[in-house]
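Q: What changes when alpha-L-arabinofuranose is included in the input?
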Amino acid sequence: MHRGKLELSCKRKGHLMKAVSRRRFLKQAGNAGLFVAATSAVGRFASAQTQRLTRVTIDSDRQIAEINPHLFGSFLEQLGRAIYEGVYDPNSQFADSDGFRSDVIKEIRDLRVPIIRWPGGNFVSGYHWLDGVGPKKDRPVVLDRAWNSLETNQFGTNEFITWARKVGTEPLFGLNFGTGSAEDAAALVEYCNVDRGTKWSDLRRSHGYEKPHNVKFWCVGNEMDGPWQIGHMEAREYGIKAADAARQMRAVDDTVKLVACGSSGPSMPTYITWDRTVLEQCYESVDGISLHRYWGNSEETGHDSSKYMAMNLAMDRQIDEIISVCDSVRAQTRSSKQLFLSFDEWNVWYRARTGDAVNGHRKGAPHLLEEPYNLEDALLVGGLVNSLMRHSDRVKVACLAQLVNVIAPIMTNKDGILRNTIYYPYSWGLKYGRGRALSIEPEGPSYEVDSLGKSIEDIGLPIPGFGKVPYLDVMATYQPEQKTATLFVLNRDLENEQELELNWHDLTPSRVIGFETITGNDLKALNSFSDPKKVVPQTVASPSVGSKMNVKLPARSYSVLTLSV
Ligand code: AHR
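A: The predicted holo structure follows.
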């Protein structure tokens, strides 16, 4: 159904009351379940109710972007029990003929994770890829200096590719820019992507892999701005090395897509300066730049969950800031090319990040970074899913860090798999974050987040507050071929149900396909192997469908509503 353009544009400009007659407004309010009366006492009640109503108009032509299929990728680092025990465990009752855990393969295959970054992370900056290829019996056991762990090299490049094909995912390879040279990077591209007749491609063939792996996406180093990184260097030095490596890699395979190493996060003292200086050296040589960020409900939020619920706005801001740097270097260098953003590490991570949680004590497969995830973490991850879709015009790749056992939605033990709370909002991003991301402008009540504390990393400057934070964080996608639309709603209100009025401009929903929410009374509740279903999605009663709809969102919730349109 089409509505008048005039009314719509007035709403967009925030002049709703001028455009809509009082009589019609009262009717709309009545439809929304509001009771508006002339007496002042009831009027006050109505106004309190109105403060829980957010209105949004949905117009399928107002498109942010066609969402890139790689927006909800993930990450596996040779760290802790991510690979060994998580993905590769020849002694497991679930091991397949390659020694991979078949239950984990099924879980990830069913999720349809589109792209997976490997092998690191901090690990990659000391990793010699040659240690991980060839006959397994000849591969050395080495000390991984990033996590003080033993690396047996039983899982390397060819195992990852074999596993990725089984899972149905695209590989995103990280390159060693710490101890590794530009030449090593080009050699790995040759090993993976050249068919035959050269030193490295023939080595791959001699290892039993006749066909090239055709790895398209490459991260040119990892967090090289971080003093903790093996081989950490100055921005200019890194930019020059990245440009050199890019030239050499493209000489081997000119179809590769290269992601330069951006700042490890806004708390870095060199944030923005790093990105600018790096791009001044290698803008023309790369295709994208990386962003990383981990959130937590600790010093930054002052352990205040209402502030924590707003932290996805920090992701929105970080993306906007990095876009500004990219585009300003583009203007400065008069480049015709626009870079894409690769948010290739994002998640909640703040409990398991010190002491024994990050020190492998020279053991193989130690329990590292095994972050427990509760309900409020899942709600924030939902908000982060919304933020990524909101920026899908520039963020073309993103990786939830990580996937199995290490800061992960999926945990394993010898008997099976556990879905952490964050599994659910991530799975919704994967399932419904497709097609067109729609540009919407919800208008509704908000609360103040004026200031924030020190970041988790405890370095650099604290990020500023957000000012007014809407209670409802809303995103919408539309899949024209399937004739479906999905609303993703984070209700940040920890006390109250909030209501969303959907005004459909050019589509008319005919049926609710599904309405699920993740919510609960205890923000700190979590799943465990002994109680795996404590925090799981619940089905919500379907709202009445039509060109105007009202949807109730429980307090402390993240919900997805899918409709036939
Ligand atoms: O994902 C865990 C670690 O976080 C990665 O190794 C590193 O890149 C980041 O600091």
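Observations recorded in class: The first helix runs from residue 5 to 12.
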